């Protein structure tokens, strides 16, 4: 469903825009859109949640997980997101989704959030998993389609066109910012 509205108490949740995942030129367009969203949400006095990942869920999978040690700054949030800005909520996760095993739900509820707008990487993993959990927790969910990306374009396209519209509204950063402005924010 195309984005139609933003609740007055929306929160932006940015997934895995950190040095080891999004610190590449290929991620620059997603980062630029996420920064625009974060700046606008902060200016509107709305919560901005920056999520990073430091581990991985246990369990066997067919694809091998690399066991090489990660660089020291691998989990550091990108500085252009201003992770130390006043009021920024930071969440560290160990799995794809930002709800499982974290205090994200509690922190969103404490902030009065009824809707989450999601941005980040990877569309078919962290973003989709977080969107599913947000939907299951009763939040209205919106995906900023030009502020998400995936290493696999087929997975990205599938998530954006088939999966995410079933559990969220989708729209561009510009469309979301227009709705934010229309709310007087």
Automatic annotation (TrEMBL):
Annotated organism of origin: Microbacterium rhizosphaerae
InterPro entries xrefs: Isochorismatase-like_dom, Isochorismatase-like_hydrls, Isochorismatase-like_sf
Chain segments annotated as coiled-coil in the UniProt record: none
SUPFAM superfamilies with a match to the protein in the record: Isochorismatase-like hydrolases
PANTHER family assigned: ISOCHORISMATASE FAMILY PROTEIN YECD, PEROXYUREIDOACRYLATE/UREIDOACRYLATE AMIDOHYDROLASE-RELATED
Residue stretches making up the Isochorismatase-like domain: 10-174
Designated name of the protein: Isochorismatase family protein
Keywords: Hydrolase
Top-level taxon in the UniProt lineage: Bacteria
Pfam family, one: Isochorismatase
